[in-house]
Amino acid sequence: MNDIAISFQNVTKIYPLYHHITGGIKSLLFHPVKAVKSLKSSHFLALKDISFEVKKGEALGIMGKNGAGKSTILGLIAGVLKPTKGKIIVNGRISPLLELGAGFHPELTGRENIILKGVLIGLTRNEILKKMEDIIDFSELGDFIDQPVRIYSSGMLARLGFSIIANLNPEILLIDEILAVGDETFQKKCFNRMLSFKKNGITILFVSHSIENIRFICDRVIWLENQNIKAIDITETIVSKYIGNM
Ligand SMILES: Nc1ncnc2c1ncn2[C@@H]1O[C@H](COP(=O)(O)OP(=O)(O)OP(=O)(O)O)[C@@H](O)[C@H]1O
Ligand SMILES: [Mg+2]
């Protein structure tokens, strides 16, 4: 078990859909009791009984159409979502880069947000301050680092987010598509940094629609379809099946 970073055992995720009214407004007006009952019981199955393991130091890609459940898997690993059924085991500190701007406070400056995010990841203030200049240098945000992040562009948010997780001693990196909003030079820099993480035995989970980037980073890939794992295998095998399916 010691060489396993992440284990999903028969995990099911069902989201409640609070705003869904079967039959629409008319039904709410004419059959209010029935409509309210349906409102309560409505839910959405996002992942159905999935199991897989990620070894320490492995780079695992996750592919699949919009809505396939990729971000749900990362959210479950990060602990921001809870599984409806099944068990998830995580061995190591999680450094997540999930939604754009997640974990940032809009009114705080980039510099202040570095401390906030670092604390959320589980580091002490001193550990974060030691890495502050490395993070700012990597981000290339210049004077913007002392501006509130609410004025940042998407690319600037991605720069700040990646620079933080990449410089705060990550053990397990979760990266959800966010790098796609960075410009080409910055993306290249991030992918090279991810390759050096791989060499140092850091575990990476990488969600992307880019076959090229998946090929560059990942050892193995999960292909999600219909709430399930359609296939899991070494990158080249999955990518060629995926392309054939498009
Ligand atoms: N908070 C939520 N409440 C209800 N349903 C949700 C919620 N979050 C996600 N879903 C649903 O779960 C399914 C999986 O969503 P998820 O965000 O994991 O997909 P994804 O593979 O990351 O898609 P994308 O490529 O568009 O990012 C989708 O059908 C989505 O509508
Ligand atoms: Mg997603």
Name of the CATH superfamily: P-loop containing nucleotide triphosphate hydrolases
State the helical fraction: 40-55%
Kindly state the number of beta strands. Answer: 9
> Which overall shape is indicated by the principal axes computed on the Cα atoms?
globular
CATH topology call:
Rossmann fold
User: On the 0-100 scale, what is the average pLDDT?
Assistant: 92
Bound molecules: adenosine-5'-triphosphate, magnesium ion
CATH class: Alpha Beta
Q: Which segments are poorly predicted (pLDDT under 50) over 5 or more consecutive residues?
A: none
Give the end-to-end Cα distance, rounded to a whole number of Å: 37 Å
Q: Give the neighbour order of strands across the main sheet.
A: 5-6-7-3-8-9
Biggest sheet record: 6 strands, mixed
The helix count comes to: 9
Helix-and-strand structural type? alpha/beta
In the residues, how many domains can be counted? 1
Estimated radius of gyration: 20 Å
What does this structure look like?
This protein starts with a strand and ends with a helix. The model has no long low-confidence stretch (mean pLDDT 92). The protein has one domain: Rossmann fold. Helix 1 packs across helix 2 and helix 6 (154-167) packs parallel to helix 7 (184-199). It is α/β, with parallel strands linked by helices and 246 residues long. A hairpin with a 2-residue loop joins strand 8 (220-225) and strand 9 (228-234). The chain has a six-stranded mixed beta sheet, with helices on both faces. It has nine helices and nine strands. The chain binds adenosine-5'-triphosphate (ATP) and magnesium ion.
